[in-house]
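Figure-free illustration: sequence to structure, shown twice.
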Amino acid sequence: KSVRLSEWQYDPNKHSITALDDEFTDSLFGRISSSPVIDKVPDSIVEIAEPQSRNAVSEFFAKVDSGCDASVEIWYRQKDSSELSCRKLTAIVERDEHGYPLSIYGIAQDITEQKREEERYQRELENMEQLEDVNLISKGHHNLSQNKIINYICTASSALHIPEGVNTYDACLAAYLEQL
């Protein structure tokens, strides 16, 4: 999988963001301006954010304005699209030798796919929890993108047991197959 990152610089005195690459301008902030400079920050960003992200975006810029590093996940609609996207914005404050802020740089990472996978995993876990435990041999939650076992519960006396030290999905599956 490729990671879509973009860079930006924030000027808290002018309340503006300057995109340092085309990816940033074309994605999230293409909704606000076609130029690489976005004014009226944070209001212009809060305006395009989905309602569930607006408070977090305001808090993010309040932290950054006070000189603190911060990050936020912002849900928004792509320009000319009804599809929701999610970006993780991270701001890093560069300081001088006395600790005073010199400049604020940021990275925007497209995490839409990751968030959709997390939502799918959560729905699957909720569906699994609704099943009657009596009919199950065992149940577990696995993060397949990281090949990790999140949790595992034996629910019946005839349950297949995971051997000590097995913590990946692949190893768990192999242990199950050996016990069948």
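We now fold a second protein in the same way, so the two outputs can be compared directly.
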Amino acid sequence: KFSNMRVVNRVIIGDFFLKNVQKLYEYADQDKNINVLIIGTLMLDKRFDMSILREVEIYNSIIDHIIVAHKVNRKNIWYKPHPRLAKDSWSFKKANLNCSIYPLAGNFLSDVELCNKNISAVYSVGSTSLFYAKEIFGKESYLIDIKSEKVHPSTYQVYYHMAIKLDLKIVKIYCNPPKN
């Protein structure tokens, strides 16, 4: 069994992973001036009551936090959509997120983007790339705390416990969920 990170009884192949990702980065658009990367996920799930409007509220509250905490401009905060994000969801986020957003088509995996030396911090509600950001790329990594939101509870708990184990910082959201 193999792993990119330290896991008991597994062969660590993180160095090989890093070398391959760095090769891919040579082909990426390296012109973006990114200081902070937000890695998007597929938060919307028909089984739960999370709306895209609420998702954008959460991200915008985190963007406000990032501006203060990292002393960066909105245009230097980039949201990286999940590769399977629907086009209409991407369009809504493009119109409503208070930061820069990657194009939907032709975009590299977030692991490749982590090679960008300008990126000092990475945020996500849950992604293996968030863990790689800290463990393999040495970036400040922050898990966005959405445990009080209407999302898949067990999926988020896995990310939360892994973040604790890897000593990632947990960031509370700064907007309250709408009352029913």
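Summary for the second example: The longest strand covers residues 140-145.
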